[in-house]
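Hi all, long-time lurker, first post. I run a small reading group and we've been trying to get comfortable going from sequence to structure in the token notation. Rather than ask abstract questions, I figured I'd post a concrete chain and ask someone more experienced to write out its structure so we can walk through it together at our next meeting. Sequence below, copied exactly:
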Amino acid sequence: MLVRALPCFLLAAACAKQESPIIEGPNTSSSEMASPSKHFRMTGEIVFRLEDRDVTQQGELWLGSEDRMRFKIGIVGAKNIFLFDAGKGCWHKTPGTAFKEDLESADVFGIETKLRWHILNMSKSEGDQQFSVSLNDNNLPSEVSLGEYVVQLSEYKALGKKGALYPTVWHWITPRGIRIETFSDLQDGALFLDSAFNPPDFNSFDSIRLAHATAESLADRIGIVNEDFFYIEEVDFTSQAELPKGWWWVNQDERYFVFEEQPEFQIENIRSITGKTWLRWATYDSVGNAFGSDMLLKIAKQSGYRNTGEVWVKEVGDNSRRYLKVFIVTVVEN
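-- Answer (accepted) --
Happy to help. Here is the structure in token form:
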């Protein structure tokens, strides 16, 4: 928990810079819901209420979904960083050290991240029975709880891109103590790459082809992945029963059958793209191929990459159990 690491905040030397890309939302005339720029960036003052005194720190919080958070907190030149990505892990680093796995804090950050995401998106979501919500005289949430974790909310201000009201004071009452967060700035149109919520060089299985696990939240994923791509043209496709598992993709209006893995036997006219770096956007929003491709190229440009090929789009049938649309393109850093 954060309080446990407070002595490190105050005594440790300055930490090395460990930043992940943050991208402002691309300008688009299409529906805002179709944009992946739905993340939050919040900065302000964090007060830990201890038995004998208050301890004040500066904090910066990034939220990528209900299960992805990055929290940097401390004093100038000496800050701790906490990372949470449900399903992958929880980590923290103190100034001057490398990231370490932090299993003890995973459950705590899981609850807090879910609470934060629910509160910030409450106007867009239907009532979720797992949360208990009280409203103030202006019909705005004044207290939201999940289990033993309670957040009292106040001082609403128009900080959103379109004047949306957000609470700037978050008073946490938890089994691990009391914490008061006062945010001076909140961005509701930010976009973070997946790597923002994992330690540097974190090696996770992150395929450009496979859909997410059933239990994963319906959140956009923007990430850099390294994969080899093996495929055949539509004219060479015989029968899916005779071929290894794969999916149909579209590239420049042409259909290709892409294999999940490199085939173990020889396939006539098979092609490949190997040794490349890809930028991937996976979304559950209803996004057209042209809009999604254009959005992905904008994301690449704004995140310091340039595309070296055309965008590939994974086909999704109308009767798909979960409508996951995937856009990928080969990129290199500028």
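A couple of things your group might point at:
The chain has three helices and 19 strands.
Residues 10 and 75 are 7 Å apart (CA to CA).
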